[in-house]
Design goal:
about 15% strand; single chain; globular; 13 helices; Rossmann fold; about 325 residues
């Protein structure tokens, strides 16, 4: 693929994004803090074309034929891993799927040495998830092969942030000035971390809602230091949700339930579960999302999760299109 071309070829026809592919300046996708609004919208425009591909009976285009994508996950994953692997296969890339338990890392080999082995084997892009925050950054500093961060510790999950905003845009149009509420364990959520940057790029008004024990220490100072003035913090969900265009509960992880960060599950459900009554406080028809997996009956009620306002399943479908767009840009049109 010519890195200077500005048209997107998808199985026999050409589509012309209004934004030039020359805008793309990333060799890696580690988080969204360095994405401009135009770059985010470029991903969305290409994802639109990819959505058309995955709606067909035969979900296959030759876009990345001859390229090799490796997925290397050091944590369990269903949605993200399968989504990236399907995205690569739909684009006709060859795929290599590595499990850390079965890799040489389990024998004592370092992370960088394992990744360098993949690089030496000719892998074009490595999609990696790691329990340690910053691991993909270390990989990117030590490899020529492109790295896509599929989640690192409590830090970032950029493809999830992009697919969340892409899902909203498909239903709400221009997101500038829209209000989104993320509720739950903000401290330990890499999804919330990347969505903070995604919403900034798109002009979204973001409200983070959680009990004080589930908000990062020094959050207000960090928001000020990073000029994240689009973010507000609220502890009362009934207040936070008023006039919201979209609400996204986060999974309350079992380890947080048992570590004393919340007084009890019963109290958390009473104060922070997204119920039909609470959702009625948002704008009429407000969108409900969830990055998954859900704890039904804890952070979200069954009635809300499967209501007509819920786009949770659509998020999963959109995740494939967005990840196809990222693989296209990184693997096919990378800037060297």
């Amino acid at each position: 693929m010519n890195v200077n071309e500005t048209k997107l070829s998808v199985s026999g026809h050409e589509s012309f994004p209004s934004l030039s592919i020359e805008l793309w300046q990333h060799r890696h996708v580690l988080d969204l803090d360095d994405f401009s609004c135009d770059e985010v919208n470029l991903v969305f425009e290409i994802a639109d074309a990819m959505s058309e591909v995955i709606s067909r009976d035969v979900k296959k285009v030759p876009t990345l034929r001859g390229k090799t994508i490796a997925t290397m996950f050091f944590e369990p994953s269903t949605r993200t891993r399968s989504s990236f692997e399907l995205a690569a296969k739909y684009l006709s890339a060859d795929t290599v799927s590595l499990d850390s338990i079965k890799s040489s890392v389990a024998k004592g080999e370092s992370l960088i040495d394992s990744l360098r082995t993949l690089q030496a084997l000719g892998v074009d892009t490595i999609v990696m998830r790691h329990p340690c925050s910053g691991a993909p950054y270390i990989a990117a500093q030590n490899l020529e092969t492109s790295i896509i961060n599929a989640g690192d510790g409590c830090h970032a999950h950029p493809s999830q942030g992009l697919l969340d905003m892409y899902t909203l845009r498909r239903h709400l149009g221009d997101l500038n000035g829209r209000k989104v509420v993320i509720v739950g364990d903000i401290t330990h959520s890499r999804v919330a971390g990347s969505n903070i940057w995604a919403t900034k790029a798109l002009g979204v008004k973001l409200t983070l809602c959680a009990p004080p024990t589930l908000l990062p220490h020094g959050l207000h100072a960090m928001l000020k230091k990073c000029s994240l003035d689009h973010v507000t913090v609220e502890h009362d969900l009934d207040v936070a949700i008023r006039d919201a265009d979209a609400v996204m509960p986060l999974r309350l992880q079992k380890e947080r339930q048992q570590s004393g960060l919340i007084s009890s599950i019963r109290e958390y459900i009473q104060l922070y579960q997204l119920t039909p009554q609470r959702l009625s406080l948002a704008k009429p028809g407000a969108i409900v999302m969830h990055p998954g997996p859900m704890n039904e009956g804890i952070e979200i009620s069954h009635e809300v999760a499967y209501s007509s306002q819920s786009l949770i399943e659509e998020q999963v479908t959109n995740g494939v299109a967005v990840r196809m767009a990222l693989l296209y840009l990184i693997t096919g049109g990378k800037i060297r």
